[in-house]
Amino acid sequence: MYERLPVLAAALWWGSLSAIGFVAVPLLFAHLPTPAMAGHMAAKLFAAQTYISIAACACLLVLSKRKHAEKTEQWAQAAMVFVILGLLLALLVQYGVAPRIVARENLRLWHGVGSGMYFVQWLCAGITLWKTAKQGS
Question: What is the pTM of this model?
């Protein structure tokens, strides 16, 4: 069972990024009466997503090396750069970019930067999932 935990953590990370960023938030903008209302709710969803990303990445970091092992797990050697990059992107989006979007500071620029960083985080999570699932098979 221990061997499958990295796959579950990576799946939660990638799946939650996919569900919130590509399904829930677009639906908010399609169905709420104003873009301001949708934006306010999207900010809350993205904040919750950040905590999911932090938890999943922390689990992956902890699981990357077995207790008393001399080297990291095989999947971790292939995926660790993507875990760390994805974690950094999640933190940068939440604490660097999101406050500027909420303040409507140069909205077009910061929304583009945030969207790009979210997409790269999604790719990191997907690559991590791919590498952890590949190891488990």
Answer: 0.91
